[in-house]
Structure formats: C-alpha cells, structure tokens
Automatic annotation (TrEMBL):
<dbReference type="Pfam" id="PF00383">
    <property type="entry name" value="dCMP_cyt_deam_1"/>
</dbReference>
<dbReference type="GO" id="GO:0003824">
    <property type="term" value="F:catalytic activity"/>
</dbReference>
<dbReference type="InterPro" id="IPR002125">
    <property type="entry name" value="CMP_dCMP_dom"/>
</dbReference>
<feature type="domain" description="CMP/dCMP-type deaminase">
    <location>
        <begin position="3"/>
        <end position="114"/>
    </location>
</feature>
<dbReference type="InterPro" id="IPR016193">
    <property type="entry name" value="Cytidine_deaminase-like"/>
</dbReference>
<protein>
    <submittedName>
        <fullName>tRNA(Arg) A34 adenosine deaminase TadA</fullName>
    </submittedName>
</protein>
Length: 143
C-alpha cells in the first residue's frame, strides 16, 4: 500500500463518517482514476433512500460501468472504508474495475458491532436447477 493509497483510504473513511452523520450506515467509497485523480465519491444512503442496495461500492460500480471505457475502468482503483459485501463484489466484477483497496475487514467490522445488533444478511433456501428445456429457450443464441 502506497502513500496515495492511504490518502484515498482516509478520504473513504471521511465519507463513511459523513454517511453516518447523515443518518445512514457508516460506509464510504471513491474511485481514483489512472492519473491519480478522484473520479467519483459515494456514501451509503440505504436508510435515507429506503434502498437496501444503496451501498457506495455498488453505486460506484454502476457509475464506472456506465461512464468509463474498459481500459480506464481496469486502471481505476476503488477505495472503500470496509471490504465490499457480496452484492457489491459482484457488481465490481461486472464493472471491470481493476483494483479495490479497503480499510476494515469483515471480521474487524463484526468486532465493532454490538453483540445484539440486527444482522444485515439473512440465510435463504435455494432450489434448482429445474425446467432446463424451457429455461434454455430465451437464452440459447443470445451469447
Ligand atoms: Zn455492499
């Protein structure tokens, strides 16, 4: 990790504090482009937007996929106050962003929560695959 990495991470931590001050969960992220400039910043707004997907990493991954060409996205780094959750990690993979640098690990985050804190992720049951002959029809030939 370089001095620039630490500087950008400190900004992500500031954004996390701003999210909390605004009534949202304490997470913030930014994108630093190939030339080292900040391209975009986001804060968690899942409470004020009443949107469980309003994580800063997801918003930035969507922005990157929309606004950056592939080469620029691959050379862009996301700095984020906590390691991205599974939802955001999936979006980052699809965005083409080349690198993620985070401050808190999931284990460190868990250690900072109260013992009785409400979980934010719930297990669910899953069944499948099923109906292959029908389900393949709209897919076959698309890719
Ligand atoms: Zn997330």
């Amino acid at each position: 990790m370089t001095g620039d990495d630490e500087r950008f991470l400190r900004r992500a931590i500031e954004l996390a504090a701003e999210a909390r001050a605004g009534g949202n969960p304490p997470f913030g992220s930014l994108l630093a482009g190939p030339d080292g400039g900040i391209l975009a910043e986001e804060r968690n707004t899942s409470v004020t937007d009443a949107d469980i997907t309003a994580h800063p990493e997801l918003k930035l991954a969507r922005w990157a996929a929309r606004e950056l060409d592939r080469a620029t996205a691959a050379a862009t780094t996301m700095y984020t106050s906590c390691r991205p959750c599974g939802m955001c990690a999936g979006a980052i993979e699809r965005s083409g962003l080349g690198r993620v640098v985070y401050a808190l690990s999931p284990e460190q985050l868990a250690s900072l929560k109260s013992p009785g804190a409400t979980p934010v992720v719930f297990p669910f049951s899953e069944e499948g695959p099923a109906l292959f002959d029908e389900a393949r029809v709209p897919v076959q030939g698309y890719y």
